[in-house]
Amino acid sequence: MTQTPWGAPLEVGIALHVWTTPPDSPTRREVYAYRGHLWQREGEAMCRYREADAASADAAATMTTLRFSRDQVTLLRQGEIACRQVFRVGQTGRGLYRTPYGAFPMVWRCHGLEAEVLAGPEAYASGIPGVDDVQDAQARLAWLRFSYDLELGGQYLGRYEVHLDVRRSHFAEEGGMRDADRGAAGRMAAGEADGEHGPGD
């Protein structure tokens, strides 16, 4: 059965909220904002953004790609930090977390996952968190919520809860994609997401 093809990349704003509950410590919350690109098709989305490290001279040290639907999330990070994780509720995953200091075994178990790929009035009608009016709904393109336990290098790090919201951006009016990003976007649209099965699937 042939899947619906991916749409053209959209320039978006990405809000990322991460709650971490370590063992024997209170929950802490971290909030990030990125500019990136979103690909959509029926029931599925993929977004890509650069993680800027304020302590590094190279603000594009790690590229993150998130591909998600209502029942699965694939997280791919490439650069100074590299890993690949697939999340499905109730399932345990294993992989390697690669850093400039070495590679460490990683184990995770997903406890909850909700996602929606939306655009326009459909977002408002769905009553999703954070959408208070039609104008806000028209900006919302996709959202994702998932939680998991994480073990790294044999040490339990705690419970993670991730909220991702993707909205339309004025990035195009401010210059749009850089040449390097255009090349990456083209490869992804052709199904070559740098080691991850891309939009050609």
Which keywords apply here?
single chain, 201 residues, mainly beta, Lipocalin, 10-stranded antiparallel beta sheet, 11% helix
Structural class label? mainly beta
Shape: globular
Order of helices and strands: EEEEEEEEHHEEHEE
Individual helix count: 3
Percentage of residues assigned to helices: 10-25%
- CATH architecture term: Beta Barrel
pLDDT average, as an integer? Answer: 79
- Give the strand content: over 45%
Question: Class in CATH?
Answer: Mainly Beta
Spatial gap, N to C terminus: 11 Å
Under CATH, the homologous superfamily reads: Calycin beta-barrel core domain
Rg (CA only): 17 Å
Question: How many domains comprise the coordinates?
Answer: 1
List the quaternary state of the chains: single chain
Topology:
Blueprint: E1 10-21, E2 28-41, E3 44-51, E4 62-68, E5 73-79, E6 83-87, E7 92-99, E8 102-117, H1 121-126, H2 134-139, E9 140-152, E10 155-168, H3 179-189, E11 192-193, E12 196-197
Antiparallel strand pairs: 1-2, 1-10, 2-3, 3-4, 4-5, 5-6, 7-8, 8-9, 9-10, 11-12
Briefly say what this structure is.
This protein has helices at residues 121-126, 134-139, 179-189, and strands spanning 10-21, 28-41, 44-51, 62-68, 73-79, 83-87, 92-99, 102-117, 140-152, 155-168, 192-193, 196-197. It is mainly beta and 201 residues long.
